[in-house]
């Protein structure tokens, strides 16, 4: 399966006028003016993606890399990486509902800062033979009682894909990608505010950045900038930045974030550290890379 098809399963033209005046593109932060050492941190012969930083120097992601009990390629499971030694291990998913069910693939995960809940994107692999396209849904896992309670969020509609969850604690917004009705085409990026324990507000499409192509992997930096990837016509998936405050046009990020292959799932760890995923040269695998400034 090619990376383009894979991303469509799991998961640029913009208006340049406002009130008759030309809008400026979002200013790219000084972070990207640094020099980076870029190296892969996941195996080059497996698919690894869906990364989310969960604090304490830990990165959670999904992969079909070999485990103790399963060969590569059988299922996408949840993994954790210690960013100090860059060693990974399978996450113990006991009592995490469908996440622990062998018939489900895991497509992405996010955890709030206080570790009171998780939002996990899962896919029932047994349904693939009956659907023209793999459906992915979100699962809300409440961890606040010392044990897990799992439920489908009320804003999730049957028959559509919901994936790439990212929760921004400062604003209490959950961001995700979906092909639910009301979008511009393909997968679009939405957000929904957490208004109470296990309670969510109205879903908002991010019309300022969504396109007729796939728009995926939202991430909000500490500065409040939105990073995401769009399927472009020239170089596949590229990473863009959008400034909510200035309401400017999105800007494509420079190298080494973007390359000649598909680039997506960008996130900042610190002022000197970032993660990006990209396809292999032959598009057979997805690999996670770390960008360390020097």
Q: What can you see in these coordinates?
A:
This protein has 294 residues and is mainly beta. The protein has one domain: Neuraminidase, CATH 2.120.10.30. Helices cover 3% and strands 44% of the residues. The strands form 6 sheets. Strands 12, 13, 14, 15 and 16 form a 5-stranded antiparallel β-sheet that branches. The longest helix has 8 residues.
Outline the secondary-structure elements.
Elements (H helix, E strand, L loop, with lengths): L2 H8 L6 E2 L2 E2 L13 E5 L7 E6 L4 E6 L13 E6 L4 E4 L13 E8 L5 E8 L12 E6 L6 E3 L10 E7 L4 E6 L9 E9 L2 E2 L3 E2 L9 E6 L4 E8 L3 E8 L7 E2 L10 E8 L2 E7 L6 E8 L1
What is the CATH architecture annotation? 6 Propeller
- In total, the number of domains comes to 1
CATH superfamily: TolB, C-terminal domain
How would a textbook summarize the main sheet? 5 strands, antiparallel
**Number of DSSP strand runs:** 23
Secondary structure: helix percent: under 10%
| Cα radius of gyration in angstroms | 18 Å
CATH class: Mainly Beta
Order of helices and strands: HEEEEEEEEEEEEEEEEEEEEEEE
Indicate the structural class: mainly beta
Number of helices: 1
CATH topology: Neuraminidase
Mean pLDDT: 86
Strand content: 35-45%
Low-confidence stretches: 11-21
Name the overall outline: globular
C-alpha termini separation = 36 Å
């Amino acid at each position: 399966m090619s990376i383009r098809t894979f991303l469509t399963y799991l998961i640029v033209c913009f208006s340049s006028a406002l009130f008759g005046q030309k809008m400026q593109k979002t200013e790219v932060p000084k972070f990207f003016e640094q020099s980076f050492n870029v190296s892969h941190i996941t195996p080059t012969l497996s698919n690894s993606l869906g990364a989310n930083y969960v604090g304490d120097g830990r990165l959670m992601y999904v992969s079909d890399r070999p485990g103790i009990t399963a060969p590569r390629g059988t299922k996408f499971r949840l993994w954790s990486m210690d960013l100090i030694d860059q060693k990974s291990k399978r996450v113990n998913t006991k009592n995490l509902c469908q996440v622990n069910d062998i018939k489900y693939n895991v497509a992405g995960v996010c955890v709030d800062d206080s570790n009171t809940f998780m939002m996990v994107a899962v896919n029932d692999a047994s349904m693939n033979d009956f659907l023209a396209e793999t459906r992915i849904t979100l699962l809300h896992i409440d961890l606040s009682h010392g044990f897990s309670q799992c439920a489908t969020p009320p804003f999730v509609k049957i028959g559509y894909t919901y994936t790439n969850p990212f929760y921004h604690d400062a604003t209490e917004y959950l961001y995700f990608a979906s092909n639910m009705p009301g979008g511009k085409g393909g997968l679009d990026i939405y957000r929904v505010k957490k208004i109470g324990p296990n309670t969510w507000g109205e879903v908002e499409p991010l019309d300022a950045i969504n396109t007729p192509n796939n728009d995926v992997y939202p991430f909000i930096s500490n500065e409040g900038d939105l990073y995401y990837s769009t399927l472009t016509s020239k170089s596949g998936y590229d990473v863009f930045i959008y400034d909510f405050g200035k309401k400017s046009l999105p800007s494509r990020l420079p190298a080494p974030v973007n390359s000649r292959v598909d680039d997506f799932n960008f996130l900042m760890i610190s002022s000197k550290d970032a993660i990006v995923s990209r396809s292999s040269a032959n598009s057979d695998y997805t690999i996670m890379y770390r960008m360390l400034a020097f």
